[in-house]
Amino acid sequence: MAQQKPMKWVWRIIGVLVGAIFVFAGVTKLAGVQPFRLLDPIEFARDIDNYKILPWTISVWLALYLPWLEILCGLALIFRRLYAGALSLVLVLLVVFIGATITAKARGIDIKCGCFGHVSDQLSFAWHLVLDFAILAGVVALWRWHSWNARVAERVSH
């Protein structure tokens, strides 16, 4: 049992880091091109539209709501409220984003990521994928740890 305490802190730190990444990503998308100028979703809508997957109107709706969803999910991971739901949403967001990014690149579309607003414009496609897969690995690990803890708690309660 003494070994479980340090591991719990490791998982907690991973959860806070992943949550902070999503809060940061959401806030930078809201800021637009100019720092500290909140609620300027048009630039992010253009980034979404560059993938050439969705109509413009859906890109605008996503640009309005997606940053807030990322912020809320990130806060849920940090403060461990609605944790399983936040993990599920973050996992889906990452898988969809990685799939859309790889698909766009395979179609020869030169895209800007938009992941962290325009903070990440200088990263290459390969670095974006490395970053995205690292975050995905963290989320999958958190999901497995959360599921394992839920099964253990269920066995103990019976």
Question: What is the terminal separation in angstroms?
Answer: 20 Å
What percentage of amino acids are in beta strands?
under 5%
In helices, the fraction of residues equals over 70%
Based on helices, strands and strand pairing, what is the structural class?
mainly alpha
| DSSP summary, beta strand count | 1
Number of continuous helical runs = 5
For the report, how would you describe the main beta sheet?
A: none
Radius of gyration: 17 Å
Structure, briefly:
It contains five helices and one strand.
Topology:
Layout: H1 4-31, H2 42-49, H3 56-79, H4 83-106, E1 115-118, H5 125-157
Helix pairs in contact: 1-3, 1-5, 2-3, 3-4, 4-5
Structure write-up:
By secondary structure, the protein is mainly alpha-helical. The protein is 74% helix and 3% strand. It is built from five helices and one strand, in the order ααααβα. Helix 1 runs antiparallel to helix 3, helix 2 packs across helix 3 and helix 3 crosses helix 4 (83-106). The model has no long low-confidence stretch (mean pLDDT 85).
